[in-house]
Amino acid sequence: MAAPKKGRSASAQSKPGRSLVLILIAIVALTGGMFLSGHTTPRLGIDLAGGTSITLRAVPEAGQESAINKTNMDTAVDIMNRRVNGLGVSEAEVQTQGEANIIVNIPKGTNSKEAQDQVGTTAKLYFRPVIATEVSGAAATASPSPSASGSPTGKPTDSADKATSSSSPPSSGTPSATPTSQGRAVTDALKADPTPSTSASASASASPSAGGTDDATAKLQAQYAALDCTKPAVRADAGKGAKPTDTTVACGQNSQGQWQKYVLGPAAVDGTDVDEASAVFNTTTAAGWTVTMKFTGSGSKKFADITGQLAKNQSPQNQFAIVLDGEVVSDPFVNQALTGGNAEISGSFNQEEAQSLANMLSYGALPLTFKEDSVTTVTAALGGEQLQAGLIAGAIGLALVVLYLVVYYRGLSLIAVASLLVSAALTYVIMSLLGPAIGFALNLPAVCGAIVAIGITADSFIVYFERVRDEIREGRSLRPAVERAWPRARRTILVSDFVSFLAAAVLFIVTVGKVQGFAFTLGLTTVLDVVVVFLFTKPLLTIMARSKFFGSGHSWSGLDPKRLGAQPPLRRTRRPSAPVDTKEA
Predict the structure, then answer these.
(1) Most exposed: 25, 258, 270, 387, by fewest CB within 10 Å?
(2) Helix, strand, coil % (nearest 5) of the chain?
(3) How confident is the model at residue 364 (pLDDT cuts 50, 70, 90)?
């Protein structure tokens, strides 16, 4: 059994070129991917690239001043963090300041504008039945009897009932555009009680006396008649302060770009009933980008109940509005109950808008309402100066390492420098690819981690070189010394790198913010150190050992037996036996 093992070992030793070809292919492939992706430089963090700093102030709703507390503020910080990271904007900082303020620092880069737009969005989602709707403003005058098909497009979908809904609801039952008919339509709709509730509380507020008295109904009529959704200030105040159990007014933009106004009944399904949401490109219809939602168990029942009730009504009272932060984003209609626990929001979404909406729905609504106090642009001037100083320090450290290698190891320093260059190339390319892939952004602590990695990588070379020299000192020639030194050096290198990687992993887990950048870079470069030593340094030294310059022990090779104080190998000699005295014998 020993002979075949020896043969395999000899075969592996004689073909170190395979490892060199493998790592060369990996470098070429990664570099090609970097250029094809269009990201030829690593993404920079806010301290190096600049970005935006947003100050958000928590605003209590009427009678809920006690809601601004540490628990709700911490929850808001956690949700904002997940929203930003869900968009792939890494290195963002979200932290509280004082009792009612949150500071958000967003670095410049991919999706940073989307993150800025939604970071403080409350994202309160409700499914409300539509009582009345029509085109608002000048468009209503041009079209005195608009149909409900002009409303924001959208259709609920169910795994078993996809054919039960449509994106173009019938036009019957739509109120006229005149103020008189508006009030009559609202009054008739409220009296008709089109949306029987699924619970006692909702039933009470959905009844003809949802406003409490006829005066409340008259007030709602007046609000609906005066509502001009073409004006931003009016849209912002529409339905402001309304509770989920209230009948209210709202605005939404339809697929033709027109603003639509609504009278909406009490919320039948809450955003907390949404289990998960995702952006999907619908290839089966002309809907384009849509947002699919999966409800929780209780949410599925509520959704089935409300769609079953709405299916009995005429348009537009067979529609339900999906209301996000007071604005209608979709108002699909149904003609039978949808019981599968899934829904789809469709409309004039592009990819970014669909992903942004899905992101907010997935991570939930903020427990507080926030007002944007200030938005300031952060320049990279200070970070650039610190980066320049850090790079100078790194260059000095690298130069000292190379100088030490040249003086002490002479010819072996060529192998060490080549290994350092390969490690640097892999680190740069991978960091460039990780930016668009996982949102990695290079900050100052990450640069420090890369500089520290120079010493870790050089330490691995030194361990191996010293093992080879020890073998030569014991009297072995270079080629056997290279192979015999490798197993012992390999164990030491693996143990050392494992400890470094473990420290980086623990640091990454227990810390937050920029320190994680240092830990991530340190862990990445430690893994690359193992790859370079195994696939480049050792095979290259094996090949160099066959050359005359290194194999003959040239004085500048760094492996000269005389300079290393090599001793001839000890050989055991047999002691001469004492002569036998025949007489004594």
Answers:
(1) 25
(2) 50, 15, 30
(3) low
